[in-house]
Amino acid sequence: MAEGQRRLRADAERSIRTITEAAERLLAANPAATIEQIAEAAGVARTTVHRRFASRDALITSMTRDAWAQIGAAVAAARPATAPPLVALHQATTNILEIKSRWTFALGQPSDDPSTVRTQQEVHAACELVLRRAQEAGLLRPDVDLDWTGRVYLALIDETIHGATASPGDPDAQAARILDTLLHGAAPRP
Question: pLDDT tens for residues 120-133?
Answer without folding.
Answer: 999 999 999 999 99
